[in-house]
Design a protein that fits this description.
The protein is an alpha+beta fold. Helices cover 25% and strands 32% of the residues. It is built from eight helices and 18 strands. Bound molecules: adenosine-5'-triphosphate and magnesium ion. Adenosine-5'-triphosphate binds next to strand 2 and helix 1.
């Protein structure tokens, strides 16, 4: 197990800055997710940690040692990428054994490790098959097993579930996280899928254009976003942002915190009332979304589908947010006004 750390890590491709002076440190045994939109630099950062991409500046440390100039094989890491190339002509067992043969491990030790990894990943029955005889999820587990037998101190995983269908992804998420907990190997996991990030990460680093916008636990990122980028990247639908009358602030609130105003006195000064013009409602089985406007701003409200909510499409009704649930942002910079910047 080891802590992974990067210091002022930068990558420029012909003048284009893909990773811009990032500082980041994992905890030992942590499942750390790099989350961000396409092109924000996730893969480039991971490849630099793995030694596949030389940085333009800065350092990579693994277990406290600077490894910036070491080749991948000297870093005690295992990487699994989106296209986990298995050798098609080899059996599953031989695919898994490949790195062990390359390292000239004794045969008995090879067999012990293969049995161990196959047991952890539930692929004992598949060892004699060829990759083409496996499902996508099974291939992914074989690729993980091949990474695992090397007993790495760090796992680097780049969207390893992205070619699975939605159902398999959910169970693969569950398996992968369970397996990481069992082996306790520090894992850096790249995804652009917020559900994956929220569900699996001990912490999430939210990236945008070569920078880390925020590093925190899933609930910190969701409940206490550092800026409007994070506030609107996480959550589906995203956080609502409504400008104040003087235009000096953006008020942010989650769709589930926007509820009909009650005249009966239950809602006092601790609630902020807003006229909500509902344009459309959407029934999604477990929940219902109301789409509309508050002034010029597009706003969404979210309810449990069975909730008794009073609204009429096409009509303006008073809705409200508890003041404690409001986040205040600077409209110019996007940064939080009601939270110290870290
Ligand atoms: N070899 C390269 N040469 C030039 N530009 C590159 C190279 N590799 C990546 N880039 C650019 O660097 C930026 C970051 O790329 P990167 O692959 O790290 O993004 P990403 O966050 O992994 O995106 P995705 O979610 O689509 O995989 C992109 O704008 C990309 O076009
Ligand atoms: Mg990528």
């Amino acid at each position: 197990m080891a802590i992974v750390e990067v210091r002022d890590l930068t990558k420029r491709f012909d003048g284009f800055v893909a990773v811009d002076g990032i500082d980041l440190a994992s905890a030992d045994g942590e499942f750390l997710v790099l989350l961000g939109p396409s092109g924000c630099g996730k893969t480039t950062l991971l490849r630099m940690i793995g030694g596949l991409e030389p940085p333009t500046g800065g350092d990579v440390l693994i277990g406290g040692n600077v490894v910036t100039d070491l080749p991948p094989r000297a870093r005690q890491i295992a990487m699994v990428f989106q296209s986990y190339a298995l050798y098609p002509h080899m059996s599953v067992a031989n695919n898994i054994a490949f790195p062990l043969k390359a390292a000239k491990l004794p045969k008995a030790e090879q067999e012990r490790r293969i049995a161990w990894a196959a047991g952890i990943l539930g692929i004992d029955e598949l060892l004699q098959r060829k990759p083409r005889q496996l499902s996508g999820g099974q291939r992914q587990r074989v690729a993980l097993a091949r990474a695992l037998v090397r007993e790495p101190t760090v796992f680097l995983l780049d969207e390893p579930l992205s070619n699975l269908d939605a159902q398999r992804r959910a169970s693969a998420r569950d398996e992968l996280q369970g397996f990481q907990r069992r082996v306790g190997t520090t894992t850096i996991y790249v995804t652009h899928d917020q559900v994956e990030a929220m569900g699996m990460g001990d912490r999430i680093a939210v990236m945008d254009r070569g920078h880390i916008r925020q590093l925190g636990t899933p609930s910190e990122i969701y409940d206490d976003p550092a800026d409007t980028f994070v506030a609107t990247f996480l959550g589906s639908p995203p956080m609502n942002l409504v400008p104040t009358a003087d235009g000096r602030e953006l008020l942010g609130f989650r769709p589930e915190h926007f509820v009909p105003w009650h005249e009966n006195g239950a809602m006092g000064d601790d609630w902020l009332r807003m006229p909500f013009h509902v344009h459309r409602d959407e029934y999604l089985g477990a929940e219902r979304l109301l789409y509309g406007d508050v002034g010029e701003a597009k706003v969404v409200a979210r309810f449990a589908a069975n909730a008794d909510v009073d609204y009429t499409v096409g009509v303006v009704s008073d809705f409200a947010v508890r003041r404690a649930d409001l986040k205040r942002f600077d409209p110019e910079t996007g940064f939080r006004l009601d939270k110290a910047r870290r």
